[in-house]
Design brief:
The chain is α/β, with parallel strands linked by helices. It has two domains: about 140 residues, Flavodoxin domain (Rossmann fold); about 30 residues. Helices cover about 45% and strands about 25% of the residues. The N and C termini lie far apart (about 55 Å). The structure holds flavin mononucleotide. The site of flavin mononucleotide has 18 residues, from helix 1, strand 3 and strand 5.
């Protein structure tokens, strides 16, 4: 399981989010400007973040995503910051999707500077996501569609009913 963190940040807000994620999974966050940023080995989970500037992503982030080689990344978790809207997250997700990268349904968005409470909730969340995906890969269940919650509830109900019936039949034969 290979996990990496990449981010684009002009003023430091997104960098701070990247560092908070990093503290939960012990992976160095690397700015896309860093010479080590390009992905050269397959990645199972990419945490990637950026901000919104004049309603757009920074062109350097657009270019970075565009240059990710086909098939290099299995799944991405997106994080972002802006003054007003979640658009940076949607823009990053949409570009990654165009590259054929799976998008984790969870994303992390913060208006402006990260609030202190992120330090409590984000590191364990990041660690849980990494663990979950690692387990799916290990068990060979990655990519399988989970059953819809309503189907899970119906199955649980049927199982409970069957167990109750079996118990009453046991009692009847005692
Ligand atoms: C030049 C510039 C343009 C911006 N344009 C937008 C914008 O169009 N919409 C928005 O919601 N926030 C906008 N912002 C706010 C940033 O997205 C926000 O401050 C973000 O936290 C910056 O992240 P960073 O510190 O990692 O660069 C802009 C900020 C700057 C400096």
């Amino acid at each position: 399981m290979r996990v990496v963190i990449r981010y684009q940040s002009r003023g430091g807000h997104v960098k701070e989010i990247a560092e908070i994620i990093s503290s939960g999974i012990d992976i160095e966050p690397i700015s896309i400007d860093d010479p080590r940023a390009p992905l050269t080995k397959p990645v199972d989970l990419l945490f990637i973040g950026g901000a919104l500037y004049k309603y757009r992503l920074d062109p350097s982030l657009e270019e970075y995503i565009e240059n990710i080689p086909e098939g290099m990344v299995r799944q991405a978790i997106v994080f972002g910051s802006s003054a007003l809207t979640r658009r940076p997250v949607y823009l990053i997700q949409s570009r990654l999707k165009d590259k054929g990268i799976d998008i984790n349904p969870m994303a992390l968005y913060m208006r402006g500077k990260p609030k202190p409470y992120l330090r409590e909730i984000v590191p364990p969340w990041a660690a849980r996501e990494v663990k979950k995906i690692a387990k799916q890969i290990e068990e060979g269940t990655y990519g399988e569609e989970p059953e819809a919650p309503i189907v899970q509830m119906m199955k649980a109900h049927e199982e409970k009913k069957a167990a109750k019936q079996a118990k009453s039949e046991d009692q009847a034969t005692d």
